[in-house]
Task: inverse folding
């Protein structure tokens, strides 16, 4: 009997020492990774019981029975550049961060309204605001977000010229409102949507050169027009001054002519008065004869100016002598 008990105890000890390390390791990992754990600040864990969503485990200490409950993993993949080669990285995490995160998209090609191909680099910052929607409403959120951003940006760039995109790339960044409307059920909030770089290479250089030439031609045309306009203004001013001088000369000539005619009239009147003064003492009742003689002299002058025939007197051209002759003949 003693021998049998000894053998039984020996077997128990042997089995215990043989499986003890495995049992201890199993208990350690079960207690550390599944059963008892701590959720840190700004992180959250999705808990499932029997394959269904149970609750969100907030920061603090928690216990999960490994037989009925588990942590729901959050799987995603993204692209990175290594030595100018694009690599796709896949990850699966059971702890979801609530901090702001950045997604840098590889550059993609767009076609502008003026049919020019260019490349755009984008950066998006987002923050998880609802871990339940992130896990259950979308699969591989970063990849889905990249497809959505590509579609929205290409649509917007198709309505813009290359010059507008280069001069104000933040027009694309203003699409953050439209983007947020699409991802509102994904449990994230878009914090930043920024264009890092716009490239168009040879077509861009060609277009910029054409634009530069057009601007130079435009400036040259403006300078030419200004010179022509200034020349026209100077010619108009010179012509105006010449016309003013001509008008002043003509006016002065008219004034001098009028003054000469007035002086001639005055002289004729003075001569007439002198003739009358010389005839009046002996005139008496011969006023009619005097008037007739005066008119006759004027008529003779008119005839001499308008015809080739000349009426000549032996007394010369002195009007007084002519009138005496006429009055004497009348008597």
Result:
């Amino acid at each position: 009997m003693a021998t049998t008990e000894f053998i039984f105890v020996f077997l128990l000890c042997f089995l215990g020492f043989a499986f003890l390390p495995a049992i201890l390791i199993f208990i350690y990992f079960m207690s550390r990774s599944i059963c008892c754990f701590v959720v840190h600040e700004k992180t959250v864990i999705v808990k499932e019981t029997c394959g269904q969503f149970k609750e969100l485990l907030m920061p603090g200490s928690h216990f999960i029975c490994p037989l009925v409950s588990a942590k729901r993993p959050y799987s995603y993949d993204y692209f990175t550049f290594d030595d100018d080669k694009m690599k796709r990285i896949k990850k699966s995490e059971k702890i979801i961060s609530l901090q702001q995160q950045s997604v840098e998209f590889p550059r993609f090609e767009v076609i502008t309204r003026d049919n020019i191909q260019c490349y755009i680099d984008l950066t998006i910052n987002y923050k998880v605001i609802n871990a339940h929607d992130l896990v259950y409403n979308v699969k591989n959120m970063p990849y889905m977000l990249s497809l959505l951003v590509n579609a929205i940006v290409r649509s917007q760039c198709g309505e813009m010229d290359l010059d507008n995109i280069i001069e104000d790339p933040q027009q694309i960044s203003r699409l953050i409102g439209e983007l947020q409307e699409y991802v509102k059920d994904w449990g994230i909030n878009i914090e930043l949507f920024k264009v890092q770089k716009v490239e168009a290479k040879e077509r861009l250089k060609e277009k910029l050169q054409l634009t530069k030439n057009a601007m130079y031609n435009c400036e040259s045309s403006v300078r030419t027009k200004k010179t022509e306009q200034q020349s026209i203004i100077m010619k108009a001013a010179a012509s105006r001054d010449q016309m003013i001088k001509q008008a002043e000369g003509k006016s002065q000539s008219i004034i001098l002519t009028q003054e000469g005619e007035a002086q001639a009239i005055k002289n004729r009147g003075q001569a007439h008065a002198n003739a009358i003064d010389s005839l009046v003492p002996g005139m008496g009742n011969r006023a009619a004869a005097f008037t007739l003689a005066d008119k006759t002299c004027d008529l003779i002058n008119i005839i001499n100016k308008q015809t080739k025939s000349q009426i000549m007197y032996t007394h010369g051209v002195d009007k007084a002598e002519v009138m005496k002759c006429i009055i004497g003949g009348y008597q």
Notes: The CA atoms of residues 153 and 172 lie 7 Å apart. The first strand starts at residue 36 and ends at 39. The longest helix spans residues 201-279.
